[in-house]
Amino acid sequence: MKTAQDIMTREAITVLADDSVQKVGELLLSSGHHSLPVIDGDGHLVGMIGERDLIDAHRKVHLPTMLTILDGLIPLGGMHEYEEELRKVTAVTAGQLATARVISVAPEEDVDAVAEKLLRKDVHAVPVVDSSGLLLGIISRSDILQHLLKP
User: Fold this and answer.
1) What is the tens place of the pLDDT at every residue in 63-94?
2) 45 Rama sector, left if φ>0, alpha if ψ -120 to 50, beta otherwise
3) How far apart are CA 33 and CA 8, in angstroms?
4) Which of 7, 47, 54, 90 could anchor a disulfide with 100, C-beta 3.0 to 4.6 Å?
């Protein structure tokens, strides 16, 4: 039985939480990856940042619909989406733009379980982290495919 640590890419291309959004975009384009792990100075995973995050950061913010009752403004749904859009368009660093709620795997996790997570959560890659959150590597859909096609 193969585990995540058996097939992960150990030398993952990463960005630091303090790196600029511009630098992240350039690195994503030059690396050919769809997303990259964001780490702090000690190598702990802070989040993931991907093409979608960068596209969202350059979109126009859509104000939520408001209802006025007795001189008070009441938002009609969509406040969470508005706050998320606002967070992304005002981000200047990778740490501010990154998605903090990340699907990650442990090094001893079975490859089949990793593949299931990639497909079920519709992500291109998952970071492999130890119990303290230290980034050990990354597994992409390509890594899973290479594993499946090996004799």
Assistant:
1) 666 667 777 766 666 666 767 776 677 788 99
2) beta
3) 15
4) 47
Q: State in Å, rounded, how far the first CA of the chain is from the last one.
A: 14
Query: pLDDT per residue over 21-44, tens digit each?
Result: 999 999 999 998 999 999 999 999
Q: Which amino acid is at 114?
A: V
Written as one string, the DSSP assignment of the chain is --BHHHHSBSS---EETTSBHHHHHHHHHHH--SEEEEE-TTSBEEEEEEHHHHHHHTSPPPPPPEEEETTEEEE-S-HHHHHHHHHHHH--BHHHHSBSS---B-TTSBHHHHHHHHHHTT-SEEEEE-TT-BEEEEEEHHHHHHHHH--
